[in-house]
Amino acid sequence: MKRSSLISIPLYVIALFLGLSMPSLVRSSEDLADCTIYYTPRESGFVAGRGFNLRRETRTGLNGQYYPADFLRAVQVEGHGRLAKSYRGFRYIYYNGKWGFTDVPKGTRQQPLVALQSCAVSARSPRIRPGTWVRTVHALLPQTLQNRWWRVSDVGSGVQGSQIDLYWGEDDPSGPGAGLYRPAGTTFTVVRKARLNLSTTNPQTRKTS
Q1: I need a labelling partner for 195 at 20 to 30 A (CA). Which of 51, 89, 92, 114 fits?
Q2: CA distance 85 to 70
Q3: C-alpha–C-alpha distance, residues 135 and 145, integer Å
Q4: Domain count of the fold of the chain
């Protein structure tokens, strides 16, 4: 009896109900991409005794201010760096082809990057544009990064077309050498072919009724 009653309900009503009760699937599509991670290195994390190159260097655009060489190398790849001491009110330096100072790490359209929410894609990506929301799903993703919605807020010249670069936030470097480009707070580096859900609006703020 219950079974026949369910069947009698029009299919469009069921579809509407499911669309409202599962907002993460509304206006979304599934795709695959490699997930990596980037971060904002803190100058204070480049300390003696850990093998860092701490020779003081400057760059055109930094107004004659000198910083540890490895800190500048990390910033050149990661995009931003948190200063140990602010300069003229600025707490960060950045590199986007040119060096400069800023009040906060920013992505495209000068929007602030948000830890564990912002992500970057290739500037040449034909399917994932700035402003798109992306959910990452993969068995090997750490719990912190698993099933989380990310907003495409940045593009990177080193990011490939099938890559999503997840923004970790501020952290110390995990070490010298290749460790310059990995935050100390996680051992995650990459997973291949993570499943994605794409959405044009923020699924976390949609009304479910």
Answers
A1: 114
A2: 17
A3: 10
A4: 1
Looking at residue 141, its amino acid is L
Distance CA 100, CA 90 (A): 10
- Which residues pair with residue 133 across a beta bridge? 151, 199
Which two tokens mark 120?
């970057």
63 in a domain, yes or no?
A: yes
What whole-number distance in Å separates Cα of residue 35 and Cα of residue 8? 44
Q: Nearest to residue 80, comparing CAs of 36, 160, 67?
A: 67
Range of the domain at 189: 27-205
Residues 6+ apart with CB under 8 A from 181: 38, 74, 77, 78, 173
Q: Is residue 10 part of a domain?
A: no
75 Cβ contact list (under 8 Å, min separation 6): 41, 81, 93, 94, 95
Query: Could you report the per-residue pLDDT of 72-109, keeping only the tens digit for each?
Result: 999 999 999 999 999 999 999 999 999 999 999 999 88
Tokens matching residue 30: 């599934």
Q: What tens digit of pLDDT does each residue of 120-152 get?
A: 998 887 778 889 999 999 999 999 998 899 999
Q: Are 54 and 66 spatial neighbours (Cβ–Cβ below 8 Å)?
A: no
**Residue 15, domain member (yes or no):** no
In one letter, which amino acid is 104? V
Q: Is the pLDDT of residue 190 over 70?
A: yes
